[in-house]
Amino acid sequence: MKKEDIFKLIISVALPLLAGFIGSYFTTPGVTGWYAELSKPALNPPSWVFAPAWTTLYLLMGVALFLVWRKKKEGKNIRAAIGMFGVQLFLNGTWSFVFFGMENPQMALVNIVLLWLAIVFTIYLFYKISRPASYLLFPYLLWTGFAAYLNYMILILN
Q: How far is residue 137's CA from residue 108's CA, in Å, rounded to a whole number?
């Protein structure tokens, strides 16, 4: 692997992990406070599942971003794909702030629906550039769909 590719890989993986770290700033205190008192659906996993699940998803997102970014010299529409990746990453980070920081499941549900749609569009754009990159985002799409279900059920139950 070329030196330039190693740099791109490090940046690509660091960006989603940084978004997750920022989101955890709001999530961690919320889980032990306000969130602990909420009624949750039967399918709600134990709290310890979320950190390893999201860490794995952030790593997959980073590798997907890298696979697209390294194709830049091939003249494909990389800028739009990376821009959409940035949009979905922003929505990902803001969900934690809205749900846990603002304690607003209703607004968080709107946020997560927009996030899910942004992931779908990112997968579409990545697919046109690198099929493996798009495939790496499918677990993220599925988990976000499950998280949207949990968000919705928490809203309904509370």
A: 21
Which residues span the domain enclosing 63?
3-37+44-157
Q: Which residues of 119-151 are buried (b: 16+ CB within 10 A; e: fewer)?
A: bebbbebbeebbeebbebbeebbebbeebbebb
Report how far residue 140's alpha carbon sits from residue 116's, in angstroms, rounded to the nearest whole number. Answer: 9
**End-to-end CA distance of the chain, in Å?**
51
CA distance 5 to 127: 20
3-state helix, strand, coil in the chain (%, to 5): 85, 0, 15
Q: How many CA atoms lie within 13 A of 23 on its CB side?
A: 21
The pLDDT of residue 100 is above 80:
yes
pLDDT digits (tens, 9 = 90+) for 7-62: 999 999 999 999 999 988 887 777 778 888 999 999 999 988 999 999 999 999 99
Tell whether the model's pLDDT for residue 85 goes beyond 90. yes
Global pTM value: 0.94
CATH code for position 79: 1.20.1260.100
How many separate domains does the chain show?
A: 1
